[in-house]
Amino acid sequence: MRIMKQIVLAIISSLLLILSTTSCLDSMLDMPDESFLVSDSIFSTQHKALSAIAQAYSNSLASGITISSWDGGRVNGLKGGTISALSGEINALKFNWEDQWMIQRSGMTADESQGWARSDDGFRFNYTSIRQCYLVMENIDKVADMTEEDKLIVKAEMKTLIAYRYLEMFKRYGGVPIVKKTLMVGDDAKIPRATLEDVQIHVEQLCDEAFAVLPDAWPSHYLGRVTKGVALAIKAEIYMYAARPLFNSSKPYLDLGAHNQLISFGNEDSGRWQKAVTASEAVITWALANGYEIINTGNPLEDYGSAVAVPGSKEVLLAYKNQTKEANSSGFTFYHPYGQSGGANGMSFNQLSQYRKADGSEQVWPSLNEKKSYSDYVMRINEMEPRYKASAMGAGIDAWNNPSDSHWSSANVSGQSNWEGVGGNEACGRRVKFWYRSGTRFWFEFPIFRLAEFYLNLAEAYNELGNSVKALENLKIITDRAGLPPYTETDKVKLRKIIQREWAVEFYEEGHRLYDVKHWKHEDIGNGIIGGDKHSFIFTYTSGNSGWVAADYQTYSVQFVYKGFWSASQYLSPFPNVEVNKGYLIQNPGY
């Protein structure tokens, strides 16, 4: 069994009390009295300590990706929405009470409900996660039946999880408060924001210390725990965000006066791109030496589907492992086409336009409001590249990534309000990406670090350094697996656009797009990606015979569906006003 299945089930009720006590504190960084939180019994044996370790993993890896349970209290920051909708990968259409609907139309806010922000992340829960990691680090030595070597490894795991949470805050908020221990009653918990540079250095130090201790691999019954490769991956990703234009600039996206170093490095330095190259190459070198690889057997749909969707994929360095059967209790309703009745899994036309045809050429879709026959749609959608077919299910077409499986037949969706062509749920494909040959399996392992990321890191960073040869060499690894011809463009600006497009396709709905386009300061961020006119396929159809099969569709067209919100304030997320008003946090500009 994998660790997230094995030990999450062992979490004891005394640890769950931790999450219910933060609301009454003067600051979210405060810590209740130690006697309330740390029972000697929790750390008396290795078996019991595993529950505390599991809680640290679950808290740290779930936060911000909306993969945990329905988030009515905004523990992870969203309520009925996904990062995919905010990024423009899917259209936020259905319910006006959902965060994805509201943010797409009016933006993130610092004070939406009882002082908490309507944002892409639950800021308070970051520190609940970090606190849990320090709780384990500071008490693991009490475990009597654990070796000293194993205790050191556990501490290294916790450092890695803390580094991951700071990475996630870095790309969302910029500089944030740095906490280096469990805060106790009497400690000054109103810690101000650190600069971008200080947060980056803190993550570097945590990863370096963890790397020296972590194993390269775990026994099969502990798969899912972090390795040396994960520590390297966190460093590589924070270097990429440090190098991209949002932070790597002589001036910030909006002026914050004397506090500009919280949101900008204050200079543009090509050395940051070089650090990103070195770090990403280190990840790939480690991965290839330890059994990981880009899956490429010559069957692009199968290879990509296996890479992103098969549990235990040898391309995934770290995944959120939560094998829950009930879709409605695990957040999977936003990822599984048979579990989502809110229409929150439909691909946008902007996202569809990132894909090419299987031969590498551009697909030509109808002009705005131009009606074409359903047979024209079928012809064109079947021409699309394998990564599209592994990620989406077409209107009236059985899922390409689950061939000959009646569960994934378009005829099997009779009565579903979430399918192509149903009013209010129009889309350019229904999400099937994480369900390659899954049959009736509802759970999946959300990929947090996948090896393809680091090849695209290299393509992007080498291009920014003016080395198109190395950029194309690394980009070819990705296009070869996709079954597409290699790119030959050497112009820096044109190649940049190509690489950014490959990021959009390769990492569709893996939590990258929203932060990629912001940190690139993408020229179309307010023109169809996050803000601006949103378009979709709109179908005419009959009332339905045996489901939403081909015979039910008549015509299709590209039409305007709503206008997305964008302003420069949205480059970074807001801190909740309930915390800003306590006087220890400087709010990001524009909120």
Provide keyphrases for this structure.
two-stranded antiparallel ribbon, globular, 591 residues, mainly alpha, 21 helices, 9 strands
Stated plainly, the CATH topology of the largest domain is called Serine Threonine Protein Phosphatase 5, Tetratricopeptide repeat
Assigned CATH class of the largest domain: Mainly Alpha
Q: In what order do the strands lie side by side in the largest sheet?
A: 4-9-8
Euclidean distance between termini CA atoms: 46 Å
The number of E-state strands comes to 9
> Strand pairing plus helix content: what structural class?
mainly alpha
The H/E string reads HHHHHHEEHHHHHHEHEHHEEEHHHHHEEH
CATH architecture of the largest domain: Alpha Horseshoe
Biggest sheet statistics? 3 strands, antiparallel
DSSP strand (E) fraction? Answer: 5-15%
Number of folding domains? 3
Described by the principal axes of the CA atoms, the overall outline is globular
Q: What is the helix fraction of residues, given as a range?
A: 25-40%
Mean pLDDT: 86
**Uncertain residue ranges:** 1-25, 31-37, 326-330, 414-418
Task: Tell me the number of helical segments per DSSP (H or I, 4 or more residues long).
Answer: 21
